[in-house]
Amino acid sequence: MIERDGKLQIPPLVWSFAFGFATGESRTLAAFRRSYNSTADKPLSPGGYYQRLTPTLAEYLHDLVEYGLDEVAVPHTVTDQFDRFRDVMIADGTVLRLHQFLSDEFEGRNEEQAGARLHLLHNPSDQMLERFSITDEKAHDSTEFNTGSWLEQRLVLFDQAYFKYRRFALIDENDGYFVSRLKPDANPVVTDELREWRGDAIPLEGEKIHDVVEDLYRKYIDVEVEAEFKRGPYNGTRSLDSKRFRVVGVRDEDADDYHLYITNLPREEFLPEDLATIYRCRWAVERLFRELKTQYGLDEFDTTKEHVVEILVYAALLSLLVSRELLSLVTECADDEAVFPPGRWAATFRSHAQLILNDLGEFLGYSPPPLLERLIEDAQKIHSQRPILQETLATATQPRTEA
């Protein structure tokens, strides 16, 4: 990151990115520079600052985010029902709209549009990220989720964008667990009913689930289904296979319909209403995306450079990590009965970020130039060849005044 000992100081640069998102300023590179100059020993001019925004810096911030994911720990806030799992994960992604000049680097779904997609694996039990990646907008969320032995004893919650029988089979074969909404066009065959109903209940065995669901009025559906899928390629071919899963339906009386879920969680431990409650935890990742966009300005990109986009995304994630770490410290210092809702904490953190950055710079031993000197440096005209409005008016009226 450092090739020679110059004016640039890396710690203030990193901290200004982490807290610069959270200050009340607009999310611009100029605002980040002002944040840096208010912390470092020596200020940087606009040109001196912008030339430091390089692909190497983007890689460096990426590494810092990955390091932070391993280090940050925050209070457990989710029901004890999850204690039997090693971790609970939510996979999801969100689109970031970019300048149209970046359409070659970040191809959008619509022509002449540019967009990036931020993919996250979120742990609602500790309100923190587990994994992250950035692709162009056209990349499907599903392509960024890789199965493997890491899934052992972990529960993953999916929306329909990740729906694949083969993926569910691999999670089960790696001793992991999953809950997903059943896609409307997925119509597996019922092999067994896991709950008996009294009276003239419609038998479901041998039927395809979507073919009969509209004729049902019971409160819950709880059945075993068999789904066919193709395995991954091997020696140039893909073999056909099948696997049995559990499908659960919870009736929504307002909509006169069922919410259908597919899972491998055992009925002995998780009743249908339990699955519906667990799946509602997916709202945690939606709240996380909202926090990143509303509090840390993740949807504001005024740049035409690919690596600057990456710098800004990683800076937002650093802000989130710092926010969660501070929440952990605040929770330790507060009364035991104190509760800190994530949204309220994020707004509080943002409003106090510049004060925290000033205290942090002082603690680390940095001595920024006096305030008056920084005001003069930041507020004065930069481009001598670019006239301001008053100069233009004065030049236009001067000939008539002289005449």
UniProtKB/TrEMBL annotation:
Keyword terms: DNA recombination, DNA-binding, Plasmid, Transposition
Keyword Transmembrane: no
UniProt cross-references to Gene3D superfamilies, sorted A to Z: Transposase Inhibitor Protein From Tn5, Chain A, domain 1
All copies of domain Transposase IS4-like, residue ranges: 85-321
A biological process from GO: DNA transposition
Family statement: Belongs to the transposase 11 family.
Pfam families linked: DDE_Tnp_1 (PF01609)
The keyword DNA-binding is assigned to this record: yes
NCBIfam families: transpos_IS4_1
PANTHER family: TRANSPOSASE INSL FOR INSERTION SEQUENCE ELEMENT IS186A-RELATED
Lineage: Archaea, Methanobacteriati, Methanobacteriota, Stenosarchaea group, Halobacteria
One GO molecular-function entry: transposase activity
Protein name stated in the entry: Transposase (IS4-like)
